[in-house]
């Protein structure tokens, strides 16, 4: 090692001395070709430089999947130049055979800090129109770390064409692999390295953002200007590794996580990747002289940060702020007439209009005429405990999210059957069951346009059972029925209609399991916590519009309550649950109670 260091120093000294004598210090100096073999150190330097350049060039050829694949061959070294930097720059002029044609090209390599563990090599194009330059990545202009150990990864410019294409492919692939309802788009390549293998391996840090477009194949190639980031725009940071070889990309691995910092950074700037974002202290969205809305500006800012909101344009942001403001006025009224301990406020739905909210998050349709009349459930006799919670008895799966599809009825149904299967089937297994099977295959109901639990039991019975969530994944849109009978894990034998009397309901629930119910969801858009007890005038018991699942009951002080599992994700309400007053038919919760039966 010492010996090597001495050689390097001596070598550098020789070049410097020669340069000092002939040229301006720091310029390129031509080394006569016949001198190269006389100096074993120099010979080794040049061989390594040529090897690095040729390896990279061949990797690009392999990556691009050239037909009649012929490795590129270095035929002859024509000229050598060197320049001392914090290491040595070499410019090697060579004759190469590129696809059967002899060309003269330059290979510019730098051997940085050769005295540190052998140093690191860096490859650059010598000039834009050199025949070698398409094979060689532009290096990052500001990064002194853009170096390459022979065979190791090296940093590349995040704007490099090939790197950008690989990053775009990666995001498309992530969309394909993801069961998210919304498509994410590439906002920025934060960091990129490339490694020359049999082809090229890219490692990226990417910032992506969820857009308003559905995560569907026909949208995957769309850009951010076509699929704007709007209400559910959560930036993500993805750590991704992609291989490009034979004109094909393959994903080695990827991991995405929410990127809070990105939200804040993006909001500080006015335009990012063709997206205009209003933020910071800019109050352009506040209509002049609108004093009523002025008080909601700080809450709106907080809301945007809490729920990772990015809006596609200043106009969209202004529109959303207006809706937010109207909603916060509505919240004041709901809160003022609340008879229980519930708190209402800016939930994740606070920037949706009532119409949008109804269309996207409900979907309960009481049928005009029932296709099937289910028998009345037997109410068990005897005392019941003061409180009961099926979540504590392995009968309730984690809270799910119906997304922007009116499929609440399917979630209410699966939630009920999950409980029945865990409690009353011989296997006593708690399985997460498929809502998508109902959305796609239950022809008695209308998929994302709504449905009804009574019919869903019948549909599952007729189909011959229900698959698991894993085997029949939720997509949140109407699709072709892909029911596979051999993947059925639970069967339904029928259903029962449960009493309107809330004491009977509790007795039935304690003995048998969670109950599917219809409810008027009006106050739920803004429910945050506490026990809701809305005034009847605000929550008409005859206007049911949502299907949910009662999983337990209890009493806090003088307030008896039901525990209701909702399907709006766990970041709504109390970890996805709604607590509502028990005993006076609040919001019609007792008017359509049912359960499947299993054997
Ligand atoms: C290889 O393919 C990339 C991406 O299609 C392209 O940008 C590049 O110019 C190609 N390089 C060569 C040497 O053909
Ligand atoms: C390329 O150069 C090699 C020798 O360096 C020679 O044998 C060959 O004929 C040349 N090919 C063409 C197409 O000029
Ligand atoms: C149905 O599921 C079974 C078991 O998983 C599988 O072997 C079969 O290929 C599936 N059939 C279809 C048509 O997908
Ligand atoms: C369910 O039972 C209630 C009475 O508890 C009754 O009013 C209602 O019509 C029944 N519905 C069905 C579908 O059987």
UniProtKB/TrEMBL annotation:
<dbReference type="InterPro" id="IPR046350">
    <property type="entry name" value="Cystatin_sf"/>
</dbReference>
<dbReference type="InterPro" id="IPR038765">
    <property type="entry name" value="Papain-like_cys_pep_sf"/>
</dbReference>
<dbReference type="Pfam" id="PF00031">
    <property type="entry name" value="Cystatin"/>
</dbReference>
<dbReference type="GO" id="GO:0008234">
    <property type="term" value="F:cysteine-type peptidase activity"/>
</dbReference>
<keyword id="KW-1015">Disulfide bond</keyword>
<dbReference type="Pfam" id="PF08246">
    <property type="entry name" value="Inhibitor_I29"/>
</dbReference>
<keyword id="KW-0325">Glycoprotein</keyword>
<protein>
    <recommendedName>
        <fullName>Cathepsin F</fullName>
    </recommendedName>
</protein>
<keyword id="KW-0865">Zymogen</keyword>
<dbReference type="GO" id="GO:0006508">
    <property type="term" value="P:proteolysis"/>
</dbReference>
<dbReference type="InterPro" id="IPR025660">
    <property type="entry name" value="Pept_his_AS"/>
</dbReference>
<dbReference type="InterPro" id="IPR018073">
    <property type="entry name" value="Prot_inh_cystat_CS"/>
</dbReference>
<dbReference type="InterPro" id="IPR000668">
    <property type="entry name" value="Peptidase_C1A_C"/>
</dbReference>
<dbReference type="InterPro" id="IPR039417">
    <property type="entry name" value="Peptidase_C1A_papain-like"/>
</dbReference>
<keyword id="KW-0378">Hydrolase</keyword>
<dbReference type="GO" id="GO:0004869">
    <property type="term" value="F:cysteine-type endopeptidase inhibitor activity"/>
</dbReference>
<dbReference type="InterPro" id="IPR000010">
    <property type="entry name" value="Cystatin_dom"/>
</dbReference>
<comment type="similarity">
    <text>Belongs to the peptidase C1 family.</text>
</comment>
<keyword id="KW-0788">Thiol protease</keyword>
<dbReference type="Pfam" id="PF00112">
    <property type="entry name" value="Peptidase_C1"/>
</dbReference>
<feature type="domain" description="Cathepsin propeptide inhibitor">
    <location>
        <begin position="300"/>
        <end position="357"/>
    </location>
</feature>
<dbReference type="GO" id="GO:0005737">
    <property type="term" value="C:cytoplasm"/>
</dbReference>
<dbReference type="InterPro" id="IPR025661">
    <property type="entry name" value="Pept_asp_AS"/>
</dbReference>
<feature type="domain" description="Cystatin">
    <location>
        <begin position="148"/>
        <end position="257"/>
    </location>
</feature>
<keyword id="KW-0645">Protease</keyword>
<feature type="signal peptide">
    <location>
        <begin position="1"/>
        <end position="20"/>
    </location>
</feature>
<feature type="domain" description="Peptidase C1A papain C-terminal">
    <location>
        <begin position="384"/>
        <end position="597"/>
    </location>
</feature>
<dbReference type="InterPro" id="IPR013128">
    <property type="entry name" value="Peptidase_C1A"/>
</dbReference>
<dbReference type="InterPro" id="IPR000169">
    <property type="entry name" value="Pept_cys_AS"/>
</dbReference>
<keyword id="KW-0732">Signal</keyword>
<dbReference type="InterPro" id="IPR013201">
    <property type="entry name" value="Prot_inhib_I29"/>
</dbReference>
